[in-house]
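Fill in residues.
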């Protein structure tokens, strides 16, 4: 999917330097990802922003062991510090 300007629409914050987390919000990068079972599955490494809508769509999670990264849809997450 592309923006009206022809750029890729959904990108990680490490690429979208013109976007960021609002000062009053918790930046989840570096926080653990904990499932409903209470088990920690990984760590948040980045957020993916929808540049056309100016909102976060995904949380990039490095799974325990560091062998793999996955995208967690933002609407399935609850961010608590």
């Amino acid at each position: 999917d592309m923006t009206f300007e022809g750029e890729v629409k959904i990108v990680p914050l490490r690429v979208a330097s013109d976007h960021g987390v609002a000062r009053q919000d918790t930046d989840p990068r570096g926080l653990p990802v904990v499932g409903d079972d209470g088990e920690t599955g990984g760590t948040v490494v980045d957020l993916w922003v929808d540049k056309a809508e100016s909102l976060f769509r995904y949380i990039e999670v490095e799974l325990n062991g560091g062998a793999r990264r996955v995208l967690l849809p933002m609407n399935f997450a609850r961010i608590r510090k």
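The chain has a mean pLDDT of 94.
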